[in-house]
TrEMBL record, chain A:
<feature type="region of interest" description="Disordered">
    <location>
        <begin position="137"/>
        <end position="158"/>
    </location>
</feature>
<feature type="compositionally biased region" description="Basic and acidic residues">
    <location>
        <begin position="147"/>
        <end position="157"/>
    </location>
</feature>
<protein>
    <recommendedName>
        <fullName>TIP41-domain-containing protein</fullName>
    </recommendedName>
</protein>
<dbReference type="GO" id="GO:0005829">
    <property type="term" value="C:cytosol"/>
</dbReference>
<dbReference type="Pfam" id="PF04176">
    <property type="entry name" value="TIP41"/>
</dbReference>
<feature type="compositionally biased region" description="Polar residues">
    <location>
        <begin position="306"/>
        <end position="319"/>
    </location>
</feature>
<comment type="similarity">
    <text>Belongs to the TIP41 family.</text>
</comment>
<dbReference type="GO" id="GO:0031929">
    <property type="term" value="P:TOR signaling"/>
</dbReference>
<dbReference type="InterPro" id="IPR051330">
    <property type="entry name" value="Phosphatase_reg/MetRdx"/>
</dbReference>
From TrEMBL, chain B:
<keyword id="KW-0378">Hydrolase</keyword>
<keyword id="KW-0904">Protein phosphatase</keyword>
<comment type="similarity">
    <text>Belongs to the PPP phosphatase family.</text>
</comment>
<dbReference type="GO" id="GO:0005977">
    <property type="term" value="P:glycogen metabolic process"/>
</dbReference>
<dbReference type="InterPro" id="IPR004843">
    <property type="entry name" value="Calcineurin-like_PHP"/>
</dbReference>
<dbReference type="GO" id="GO:1901525">
    <property type="term" value="P:negative regulation of mitophagy"/>
</dbReference>
<dbReference type="InterPro" id="IPR029052">
    <property type="entry name" value="Metallo-depent_PP-like"/>
</dbReference>
<dbReference type="GO" id="GO:0090443">
    <property type="term" value="C:FAR/SIN/STRIPAK complex"/>
</dbReference>
<dbReference type="InterPro" id="IPR006186">
    <property type="entry name" value="Ser/Thr-sp_prot-phosphatase"/>
</dbReference>
Length: 325, 320
């Protein structure tokens, strides 16, 4: 009977794999003055889920990778940007103001009135599509010394764009990873997923934190945060975009590309195929120079006063470009 | 009742399916037709006797289904009750449902299949089963055979007159199980009404009564609802699936309700455990917890290989 390998866990104290081994689950890569770290672990257990739910005041998505992490740290100044699930969920609307309804909600509530009157209360209304405008958790750095200045991302009319052309070059990738923060199937009404991927080349890196939300027969949303690091200039640029369109419009566009029904269904599950079809509705960009140039570049530091106390980017504080026509 | 065509040997089908081989389209057609006839005669509430091993969502994770048989025993040595959600999301929905249907046909009194919310035309078109059928068979015929058969799956099972088993949960329209028996179930799962609630609803341990989901459709049910239902029907436990739990199971409401989840490392990336619930002949419950089958590593490699170039080297993702 020993020939059959039974992958059997008899004790709940035998986790798969051990979430306590955070360190062991973390991969780091050093490039120039920056340390890039990623951590991937299983979804949270029920205890930590309940605790997070109490802290956030909303139910937690069923696939919650609460121990996962992506971070970029500038060692000389201590500046860092980190992506984690709880901070992303912190920025989900908890008032019910931005609440969507599933496609058949009208049909559902009208028929329900006849059968089960008396149940009218929606408990804990919140944006159950888990739409977030999260663009990372920033920790400002310090240039050090007596007159050490705080360094953090900020945006104005001089803020550079991410140099897309340089990123199109096929420079060798030294480190790459993809980390999911949370995912919900919206009770099989679509999907909502926030994931972070990154690729590090010799002179630069790109990180993309993407929220993809598809509410079947209602709406498709993509919210992208791109973090670009120039290792030579020790400069960081962060760009945030919001794209969305009605589900029907997206479907029509996919059909117009010549896709068949099967292919349209598959495409609607793939943010990469859908994102380019969605109209841009919001865009903003910020940057910070962390390298030795930072002390002499007074213009950079003074502008930070325009955005006081802002450690987390909100769309309002960004330099917002008009959407391209 | 006419038998299967003489060309279809169920035992041979089962042994091929254990090896993860696909059955021919015509065989699936015959088997689904036969299963429909069998299921048609089942009540909306099927009564079974323990011992029985209860299995939650599988979602096309074929290797993990085989793992369940390795851990819990093969059919017909162990009696099985499956709580639904056999298809979608995993990579082997066709193999999974083919095997379960053949086992049901072969051992109709030792294998019971309840309908989950994924055993529906609507949901399987969005979540993978339709696509998988089309890819593996070159057309959607097999998907039609299976989804037509899904319309006949029963909605609930009662073990030893004590444990009420359903895929999702309770409904505000249902107080007594006699009200389940009169549902016209031979149809696509509707968006609303008691049939929808049984396959869709979730418990909410923070509440006492039924509440509306913020999504604008669907209910959650609370502690008092569970107590009342058990008292009215003279039972002591509700057993359901439908919700992912990292530990493989969850017990709520002072041991009045259990969720059993049987898809370990769900979607090949959640890292969660899974369980099956073994109900002994005296009605005692034991969660047998297990992790993903080792064969899944090959799936992971396969997924990674899809990202690789023809030369075999990794094709880097130059995303922008």
């Amino acid at each position: 009977m020993t020939s059959v390998k039974i992958n059997h866990i008899s004790s709940l104290n035998e986790p798969y794999p051990s979430p306590s081994a955070l360190e062991a689950a973390t991969t780091t890569h050093v490039q120039g003055a920056f340390v890039i770290a990623t951590r991937k672990l299983p979804i949270l257990k029920s205890g930590p889920i309940d605790a997070m739910s109490v802290r956030l005041g909303i139910p937690i998505p069923e696939m919650i990778f609460g121990d996962n992490l992506v971070s970029i740290t500038h060692r000389p100044t201590g500046w860092s940007i980190e992506f984690n699930a709880e901070d992303a969920l912190e920025r989900v609307d908890k008032t019910g103001e931005k609440m969507l309804q599933v496609a058949y909600a009208g049909e559902w509530s009208s028929s329900r009135e006849k059968t089960s009157a008396g149940i009218s209360e929606v408990v804990k209304p919140f944006d159950w599509s888990y739409t977030t405008d999260y663009c990372g958790t920033e920790r400002p750095g310090s240039t050090g010394g007596a007159e050490g200045k705080e360094t953090k991302l900020h945006g104005d009319e001089n803020t550079p764009d991410i140099p897309i052309e340089l990123l199109k070059r096929r420079d060798p990738i030294l480190f790459a990873d993809e980390v999911v923060l949370y995912e919900s199937e919206l009770d099989d009404n679509g999907c909502s997923i926030v994931s972070v991927k990154l690729r590090v080349m010799e002179h630069r890196m790109l990180l993309l934190c993407r929220m993809f939300m598809r509410l079947d027969n209602v709406l498709v949303r993509v919210r992208d945060t791109r973090v670009y690091v120039d290792f030579d200039k020790e400069e960081v640029i962060r760009e945030y975009t919001e794209r969305e369109d009605k589900f029907e419009n997206v479907k029509t566009k996919l059909f117009m590309q010549g896709l068949k029904l099967d292919q349209v269904t598959i495409a609607l599950r793939d943010a990469n195929q859908v994102a380019p079809l969605l109209p841009l509705i919001k865009q903003g960009v910020e940057s910070v120079i962390l390298g030795p140039g930072v002390a002499t570049k007074t213009t950079t530091t003074t502008t930070t006063t325009r955005f006081p106390g802002q450690t987390q980017l909100t769309p309002q504080t960004q330099f917002v470009r008009p959407p391209p026509r | 009742m006419p038998g299967l065509p003489p060309s279809v040997d169920l035992d041979e089908c089962i042994s091929r399916l254990y090896k993860k081989e696909l059955l021919a389209e015509s065989v699936i057609e015959a088997i689904c037709a036969k299963t429909k006839e069998l299921l048609m005669r089942e009540s909306n509430v099927v009564h079974v006797r323990a011992p029985v091993t209860v299995v939650g969502d599988i979602h096309g994770q074929f290797y993990d289904l085989i793992e369940i048989f390795r851990i819990g025993g093969y059919c017909p040595d162990t009696n099985y009750l499956f709580l639904g959600d056999y298809v979608d999301r995993g990579m082997f929905s066709v193999e999974t449902i083919s095997l379960l249907v053949c086992l049901k046909l072969r051992y109709p009194n030792r294998v019971h299949l309840i309908r989950g919310n994924h055993e529906s035309r609507g949901v399987t078109q969005s979540y993978g089963f339709y696509t998988e059928c089309s890819r593996k068979y070159g057309n959607a015929n097999v998907w039609h055979y299976f989804t037509d058969m899904f319309d006949f799956l029963t909605l609930s099972v009662v073990i030893n007159d004590q444990i009420f088993c359903v895929h999702g949960g309770l409904s505000p329209s249902i107080h007594s199980i006699d009200q389940i028996k009169v549902i016209d179930r031979f149809r696509e799962i509707p968006h609303e009404g008691p049939m929808a609630d049984l396959v869709w609803s979730d418990p909410d341990p923070d509440r006492d009564e039924f509440s509306l989901s913020p999504r604008g459709a669907g209910y959650t049910f609370g502690a008092q609802v569970v107590k009342k239902f058990l008292a009215v029907n003279n039972m002591n436990h509700i057993l359901r699936a439908h919700q992912l739990c990292q530990e493989g199971y969850q017990v709520l409401y002072d041991d009045r309700l259990s969720t059993v989840w049987s898809a370990p490392n769900y979607c090949y990336r959640c890292g969660n455990m899974a369980s099956v619930l073994e109900v002994s002949d005296t009605g005692e419950r034991f969660f047998n917890v297990f992790a993903a089958a080792p064969e899944n590593d090959a799936v992971k490699d396969q997924q990674m290989n899809q990202d690789k170039s023809a030369e075999g080297g990794a094709l880097p993702d130059y995303f922008l």
